[in-house]
Every structure is written in C-alpha cells, then in structure tokens.
Design goal:
Number of domains: 2
Number of strands: 14
Order of helices and strands: EEEHEEHEEHHHHHEHEEEEHEEH
Largest sheet: 7 strands, mixed
Strand content: 15-25%
Structural class: alpha/beta
Radius of gyration: 30 Å
Strand order of the largest sheet: 11-10-9-8-14-13-12
Distance between the termini: 29 Å
Helix content: 40-55%
Length: 371
C-alpha cells in the first residue's frame, strides 16, 4: 500500500538498505508471517511434514519478494512524479510505502496506488505460466506463489481504504468532483464496506448455506476487519473535519471591520464605519499597523455631543502587535495561521491582500469552526 504521511517516521525494524532513495525496513513481524506460512503448508492429514515446511518457507520467501516488488512499484511510480520516498516498510500485514505528498494531484495518487496491485497481478500471471513448464516441488512452489500474488493483487485492488483500491477510488472521485475530501470520504466508506464484506464472505455465507464455518478463515476475517474498519473510520473522520475546514475562510468567521488612524475622533470613526458597513473598527498606529479594536456599538456609550472631541483611545481595546491572518486563509493554511496565537490573544485582525483590515475574528470561534 502507498501511504503519504504528513512527515517521515522511522519505525523500529531492520534496515536492509536503500533503493530509489528509500530506506528499506524489515519489521520482525514479517518473520512471524513466514513461520505461519511454513507451518500452514507443513500441516496436512498425515501430520507435520518436513517437505511441507520447506515448501512453506520457500513460498514465504517468494511472497516476501512479491510484497517488496509491490512496494517498489509504488516507489518507482512516486519517483516518476518526482516525489521523495522516505521508506519501504515490510510488515506482517504486507507492507507500505511512505512518500512525501505536499500538494498532491488525483492522477499521481491514483497511479501510485494502482502500481502495486498491477505489479502483483503481472507476477502472479507469470508465475502461473512458469509453473506449467516446471515439475515436482518447484512447480508447486511457483504455483502457490503465483496464486498468492493474484490474491494479493485482488485484495489490494478492493475499492476501499486503506487498500490501494481505496486510493484509486479517492483519486477518481476527487478528479471528477474537484473535492479532495469527498474522494477520501468515498474511499473510507468503501473501506468499511470491504471490512464488513470480509466477515460476510468468511462467516455469513457458509452459515446461511448451512455449511460449517472454517475457523481459520473466520479468524483471518476478524483480523482483517480489525485492521481495515478502524483505518477506514479514522480516514472518514479526518476527511469530514478537513473537508469542513476547506469551506471555512478567515473572512467568513470575522465581523466586518475597517481600519481607522489612531488620531481620528469617535464621530469620524462612526461615520467611516457606517460607510464601510463595518461592525468593528481596527485602530491603526502611526506606522499603519493594527494597535487596537472596538465594536462600533461601543461608541453608543459616548455622549453624542462629546463624540467629535473624543479620541479613539477612550474606547479602544489593545491588540497584540502582529495578531493578524489573511482573509483568504482556509483549511490547513488557516490552521497554521491561527495556532501560534492561542494563549496570546482573544481576537485576530483579518487583512486583505494589501494588508488592510477587513474583519475582526474571535479566536475561540475560529477554533470551534475548525474542530
């Protein structure tokens, strides 16, 4: 599976080297999987078979190579789009490739994801063809390896996250709708369907047919469900929150404001605010920077006959210098702009492209909109 992280992680494991700039990491759980496969093939009706154990180890080794080639295909595709790949991690679950995905595009996400299952499908087809030309144990090993590759390709191609097929669904929906997070939501819902489908196929179908449920298949189904369902659910929650953030701008959360020089009077401020249809006034210091603010309604407390002589200092609430965010900031850009101000101020000045105040936003309201 391809996995675009927000930042590179270095999991514990055995470093096998580097390929295409990526660190190859072998997790100890991979060895456990090899032993499980060996024992599986060693157990038959006559008991434990040394020959079966040898076949199992050979198949496990070929499967390990196949998983590596699967992840290498992801890596090569990512490098083809000039993405930096941090790691290829081989685990009990198969593996995943971590690459940097700043400013991703649907086409590359889809191509990178599809490269893995396609590689396994090709390996599986070639192995089955080669098995027909071999005899004895070699034929059995290659045949098993081919079948496992086709299973690996088919399973990874299922249309739900966190499987590669889910990434392809994400890319297609994103490309058609233009909504990145809608693609994630569809892929996550697909992942939930796949998780339930695994249980239905392994347990529900045999039960409804009146047959006996295979215990091993049921255990594997529950194991896969426990991996796929939480991952898909987490992606769905994240996509819902992040999608909502994309529709929120700093300006949409702000009270309309207008900037007025500090030496203006309350009467002048009221007149300018009325023309600009502003509910807030941002008081500008001598250098043009925001120094304070006040709601226009607050000036009602100043007697009408005194407004022409009263300076803004009498109604102004001070602002932390530099506490401002771009009006067009949205999504992660808005989060990045807001986070440094938590605990330092209660309000932020929203400015346009020219740096002029156009709004005043309460930090708590921004936090609630982004959470």
């Amino acid at each position: 599976m391809s996995q675009p992280p927000t930042r590179a992680r270095k999991p514990r494991g055995i470093t096998l080297g580097r390929v295409l700039g990526a660190r190859i990491v072998l997790m100890p759980s991979t060895i456990v999987m090899a032993l499980i496969l060996a024992v599986f093939y060693a157990a038959d009706e006559d008991g434990f078979s040394r020959q079966g154990f040898s076949i199992g180890l050979a198949v496990a080794l070929l499967l390990f190579v196949s998983v590596f080639l699967h992840e290498l295909a992801h890596t090569a595709a990512a490098r083809g789009f000039k993405r930096e790949v941090d790691e290829i991690v081989l685990t009990f679950f198969g593996g995943h490739t971590q690459f940097r995905s700043a400013d991703p595009r649907p086409l590359e996400i889809g191509v990178i994801a599809a490269a893995g299952p396609l590689t396994n499908a090709v390996i599986g087809a070639l192995a089955l063809a080669a098995a027909g030309a071999l005899d004895g144990m070699a034929a059995r090993i290659v045949l098993y390896a081919g079948a496992l590759n086709l299973i690996l390709a088919g399973f990874n191609a299922l249309p739900g996250s966190p499987l590669d097929g889910g990434r392809v669904v994400n890319a297609i929906v994103w490309a058609i709708s233009g909504d990145r997070w809608k693609g994630h939501r569809w892929a996550a819902q697909g992942g939930r369907i796949v998780a339930i489908g695994v249980i239905v196929v392994a347990v529900g179908v045999p039960f409804l047919r009146g047959g006996q449920v295979d215990i091993v298949a049921a255990i594997w189904a529950m194991f896969l469900f426990s991996v796929i369902w939480p991952a898909a659910s987490a992606e769905l929650r994240a996509a819902t929150v992040l999608g909502r953030r994309e529709n929120v701008t700093a300006l949409s959360l702000a009270a309309p404001a207008v900037g007025i020089p500090y030496d203006a009077t309350v009467a002048q401020a009221r007149e300018i605010a009325a023309r600009a249809q502003a509910r807030e006034v941002v008081v500008l210091a001598a250098d043009g920077q925001a120094a304070g603010h006040f709601p226009v309604a607050l000036t009602e407390a100043v007697p009408e006959e005194a407004r022409a002589e009263t300076r803004l200092v009498s109604v102004t609430m001070p602002l932390v210098r530099g506490a401002q965010i771009p009006a067009a900031a949205t999504g992660e850009r808005l989060v990045e702009a807001v986070v440094p101000w938590f605990g330092r101020t209660d309000v932020l000045v929203v400015v346009d492209e020219d740096g002029l105040p156009v709004g005043v936003a309460k930090l708590e309201e921004i936090r609630e909109a982004l959470s």
